[in-house]
Specification:
heterodimer, A: 140 residues, mainly beta, 5-stranded antiparallel sheet, 3-stranded antiparallel sheet, 2 helices, 10% helix, globular, B: 395 residues, alpha/beta, Peroxisomal Thiolase, Chain A, domain 1, two-stranded antiparallel sheet, 11 strands, 34% helix, binds zinc ion
Chain lengths: 140, 395
Amino acid sequence: MSAETQDTYLKPLPRPSAESQPFWDAARDHRLVLQKCRACGKFWFPPSQRCVHCLSGDHDWTEVTGTGRVFSFVTYQRLYHKGWEGEIPYVVAVIELDEGPRLLSNIVGIPADQVTCDLKVRVTFDDVSPGVSLPKFTPA
Amino acid sequence: MNIEPNTAYRDKYAIVGVGNSPLGKVPHMSAIGLVEQACVNALDDAGLRARDIDSLLVRGPDDIYTFHQLIGERLGINANFSTTATNGGASQILSVILAVMAIEAGLCTTVLCGYGRDSWSRTHRSEEARMRSATRSEEMESSEFGPEYGLFGAPAMHGFGARRHMHLYGTTRDQFGAIAVAFREHALRNPEAMMKKPLTLEDYREARMIVEPFGLLDCSLRSDGAGAMIVTTRERAKDLRRRPVLIKGFGTHNNLTGWFADDNMVNTAAGPSSARAYAMAGLGPDDIDCAQIYDCFTYMVMTQIEDYGFCRKGEGGPFVASGALKLDGRLPTNTSGGQLSEAHCEGVLQIVEGVRQLQGIYGNDRQVKDAKTCIVSGHGGNTVCHSTLILGTAT
Ligand SMILES: [Zn+2]
C-alpha cells in the first residue's frame, strides 16, 4: 500500500483467498459475480471449491442482477476502528440477493435510521483504492 | 436422520464438585493461572485430590495451544483421556458431555472440566485494545467479507438476530432490557459479581448505544475468570463430600451452515439441542425449576428461552417482560447475575451456578426455592454451536 493510500483510506482492505479472488477481480470491474453450479444450477456464497448444495466441482462465475433485500442489519454507534472515524453511525447489513445467497455489506445512500429489514436494494461499487472496489448496497 | 438420545445415561453420572477463580478484573493472574485456581477449588469442593483425576477436558482462550496439556502440567496429572473442545461458548457443557461419554466408554473414571479467560486484561492493555475490544489475536479474525465493511466485535453478529426477531415479532428494546434488569437483581445478591449497582429499565434506556439494536447493557461483560466441574459416576459420588448433582440429560446441535443461513438467527441450534436433552431426561420445560442461559447478549437469552420451549417462538418478549426470569418468577434464570452482570466466562460459571443451586448451598436471599432441576445452555462457535445440560437433585 502506498503512503498516499494509507493517508486517505484507513480501513482494512479485503485479503482475498485463492477461492475468492475472482469475486474481487470482478468487483474491481464493477460486476457482482457468484459461483453458479453447472450440475444443479444453484448459486452459493461465500466462495468455495464445490457447490454447497450438491458438491459438484463444476461451476461458472456468473454475474448476478445485483438486486435483493435487507435480511437484517445493525447500526454502528461506537467506533471499533479508526478508519471509521467521522462516519458513525454506519450500517452493516446481511443482504439476501434475488438469486438466493446472503452476503455481508454496507447500506449507503440512505440515512442509517431509515434502513429496515426487507428494504429492496441494489448493488453499487465503492472504489476504495486502486485495484479494490467494494460491492455495497443502496435502496433500489 | 432421526436420532434417539440414550435414556440409559439418565441419572447415571454426577457433578460432584465445582469451583471458580477470582472473577472480574484480575490482572495479576494469567488465563492458565485462573483455570488452575478454579480446578483446585473444584477439587476442594468435591473432597478429591489431583491424583484422583484421570481426565482433563479444559479450555482457555482460543489462541493458546492445547490448553488441557498446560493445566495437566500444573496439576501434575497424566490423563487417560484429555482434550480441549473448540465450540466456543458451547464447549463447556460439551466437555461435561464428553466426560460422561468417556467414562461410559471405559476410558477414564473421574473428569475435571473447566474453562477460563483473561478477557478484561486483554482488552484493557492499551487504548487500541480497548477500541478493538477483541479477545482473540488479530490473526484469528476474518480476512474478507467482514472487516472491510466495518464489521467488528461480537455485538453485530448477535445484533443481526435481534434485529430480525424485532422485525418478525415486534420485539422491543425494552423487552431486551427486562432481561438485563432481572440478571442485575440477581448479581446484587452475589458478592462475587462484577456489577454492584442496581439497574432500572430507565438506566437501560439511557445507556449509550453500541451496535444498534444493542446498547451497552445488552452486552455481556469483559471478564477475567474461570470455573471448573468434576464429573464421575453416581456410584463413585456416594463416598464424596457433597450431595451429588445428577446429570439427567444432555444434547447438542450445531448449525454449521452458518448464522446467516436459513432462519438460524431466530430459530437457533438451541431448539434441537434442548429437545435431545429433554428426551434423555424424560422431562419437559414445565418440569424445569431454574435455568442458566448463555447470555452473551440479551437477545440470545430471549431466543433460547423460546427455543427451549418455555414460551412459543416470537413470544419471548412478553415472557421476559412479565418478570418470569426473576428469582421469584416462573423461571428463575441466571441466578448468579449471568454473563451480563456476574462475569463472562463463556458459560462455565453458569454450569457452576446450576450445580450450586441444586447442591442447595445458598441462603434464602439467593436460593431458588425447592429447586430440583436446572437447565443450562451453552452457545457459541460463530454463534451456531449449542449444548444443553439438564441437572437434578438425587431424590
Ligand atoms: Zn450444485
